[in-house]
Design brief:
Blueprint (H helix, E strand, L loop, with lengths): L2 E9 L5 E8 L4 E5 L6 H16 L7 H11 L6 H21 L4 H4 L8 E9 L2 H13 L4 E6 L27 E4 L1 H19 L4 E5 L6 H11 L6 E3 L9 H8 L4 E3 L6 H9 L5 E2 L8 H13 L4 E4 L7 H13 L3 E5 L5 H6 L5 E3 L2 E3 L12 H4 L11 E4 L5 E2 L2
Parallel strand pairs: 4-5, 4-12, 5-7, 6-15, 7-8, 8-9, 9-10, 10-11, 11-12
Antiparallel strand pairs: 1-2, 2-3, 4-14, 13-14, 15-16
Bound molecules: D-mannonic acid and magnesium ion (MG).
Magnesium ion binds next to loops.
Length: about 400
Amino acid sequence: MKITEAEVFVCCPGRNFVTLRLRTDDGLTGLGDATLNGRELAVASYLKDHVIPCLIGRDAHRIEDTWQYLYRGAYWRRGPVTMTAIAAVDVALWDLKAKAARMPLYQLLGGACRSGVLVYGHANGRDLAHTVEEVLRYKEMGYRAIRAQSGIPGLNKVYGVSKDALFYEPADAALPSEHDWDTGKYLRHTPQLFARVREAVGPDIHLLHDVHHRLTPIEAARLGKDLEPFRLFWMEDPTPAENQDAFRLIRQHTVTPLAVGEVFNTIWDCKRLIEEQLIDYIRATVVHAGGITHLRRIADFAALHQVRTGCHGATDLSPVTMGAALHFGLAVPNFGIQEYMRHTEETDAVFPHAYRFADGFLHPGEAIGHGVDFDETLAAKYPYRRAYLPVNRLAHDGTLWDW
Ligand code: CS2
Ligand code: MG
């Protein structure tokens, strides 16, 4: 099974996606997602200009060897652009191998370990009352795990709160828009939010919250403590994870579980947090952490330390990544939860897929490969539109803060 053709497509059915399609001499096609939000064209060029010339003529069955070839062979290691490009190739190769074997991908990964993939949805509201309403709406839709984010009185545009309650899209402008931030207001508001939400949903629904890197370690420790009575499933990204020692301090103060790693690219980014058990869930994902081949390595390492997976699944990860992540989630032993933000109808039409939601779980379906397709003709109607993630500034003096 030789690779004969490789093409990169950039399209914008509601938001930008980069897709890699490989063809083989026996007529099969494999698809990989290469989307890196706000930096899409860099990955497209990395693939077109530097990776594709090395792929033509290679044996598509040699997934691990191709991974090593692209990782070690580049000499320059890691980084989001490189690892997203490698992931696209890796997922396309797994898709091809599963198609050649005429099996759904999860079968090749060892078969199902569970009946479905537990997912969490995003409830967001402009204030406390509205957020409680949204959480109840998600419960009504069948979700068993719900992330809650709320507007904060006195602050304009806060992470996780959108105009459209069902579809949240942070890359909202052709140049970065500006959010404002006040840690004091946030730390007063958030425990009140979860007191109200927990009271409204009862004890059985899992509740999650994303701090989105905005606190210092000691502030994060305070928030974790204040949220303990409401028994969160996790508190995500409480502080930036470049300095991983920071998490030891948070750990010393709170038993609220921690989830980190949506911006991580390799096992080296996660190593310390996992082996020192400074987190409970690892958020690294198929598309930004080198594909299925590398994510499996991370998950196996995490399993040794009782850390479970909690893969990133925002809308900037295309349905191709969601499909691959669901096969992975069905088969990986130390699965925790999968994030699931619904894509728009335009996106779903460009990427027809076999996965489906029922009763709080997603199932990847029984189609061969990863079960996600790409409609090239329809995609051509949605050309790339430049879009950036916002920046965040302190409300009182405009200092640039973490977003
Ligand atoms: C996030 C994302 O889903 C999450 O937990 O933190 O919304 C993230 O901000 C975007 O994926 C950035 O592209
Ligand atoms: Mg997040």
